[in-house]
């Protein structure tokens, strides 16, 4: 985009729009039932290469902003519990543990999300910042980050 106003110098600006759900790639939760229920997801900051402001990394490898990983435990279709963690790094494995008495029940499932914010406001969880990918797709994105321009 170019901006030209009489009496001022010409300014040119380039930017790229991305879907908020493409900021992070994540695996589906891996659930184990030993001493309760443990769920793990691997998250990759898909936009750190592109210097996206939602996912920008500073020199200490910490994310700028207040993104959160949210794990939601279900018993069938009924929500049972939520565990959250601030997204402290752009890429890595995040784990949630749920203390459930009947951990061997086959009805328990876990969903995981990366959201732009999470706090005590139950009416708003923030924007979805993650897309579920296979580990192979994430590995490919990590090897070739310059190709992650989801047009």
Shape summary: elongated
Count the E strands.
Answer: 10
Helix count, per DSSP?
A: 1
CATH topology: Immunoglobulin-like
What is the averaged pLDDT score? 78
Q: What is the CA-CA span between the terminal residues?
A: 18 Å
pLDDT below 50 for ≥5 consecutive residues: which ranges?
51-63
Structural class: mainly beta
Compute the CA-based radius of gyration.
Answer: 19 Å
> How many domains, as an integer?
1
The H-and-E topology, N to C, reads as EEEEEEEEEEH
Q: What's the CATH C level?
A: Mainly Beta
**CATH architecture designation:** Sandwich
Q: Tell me the helix content.
A: under 10%
Q: How much of the residues is beta strand, in percent?
A: 35-45%
The profile of the biggest β sheet is:
5 strands, mixed
Descriptive overview:
The chain is mainly beta. It has one helix at 135-143, and strands at 2-3, 11-12, 24-26, 30-32, 37-45, 68-75, 78-86, 92-98, 108-115, 130-132. It has one domain: Immunoglobulin-like, CATH 2.60.40. The chain has one helix and ten strands. The strands form three sheets. Strands 3, 4, 5, 8 and 10 form a five-stranded mixed beta sheet that branches. The longest helix has 9 residues, at 135-143. It is elongated, with a radius of gyration of 19 Å. The chain starts with a strand and ends in an 8-residue tail after the last helix. Residues 51-63 have low confidence and may be disordered.
């Amino acid at each position: 985009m170019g901006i030209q106003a009489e009496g001022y110098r010409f300014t040119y600006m380039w930017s790229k729009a991305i879907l908020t759900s493409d900021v992070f790639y994540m695996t589906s939760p891996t659930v184990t039932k030993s001493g309760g229920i443990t769920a793990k997801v691997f998250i990759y900051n898909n936009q750190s290469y592109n210097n996206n402001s939602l996912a920008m990394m500073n020199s200490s490898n910490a994310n700028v902003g207040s993104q959160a990983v949210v794990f939601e435990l279900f018993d069938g279709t009924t929500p049972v519990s939520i565990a959250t963690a601030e997204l402290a790094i752009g890429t890595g494995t995040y784990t949630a543990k749920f203390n459930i008495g009947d951990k061997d029940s086959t009805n328990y499932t876990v969903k995981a999300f990366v959201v732009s914010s999470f706090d005590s406001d139950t009416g708003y969880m923030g924007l979805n910042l993650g897309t579920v990918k296979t580990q192979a797709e994430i590995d490919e994105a990590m090897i070739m980050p310059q190709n992650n321009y989801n047009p």
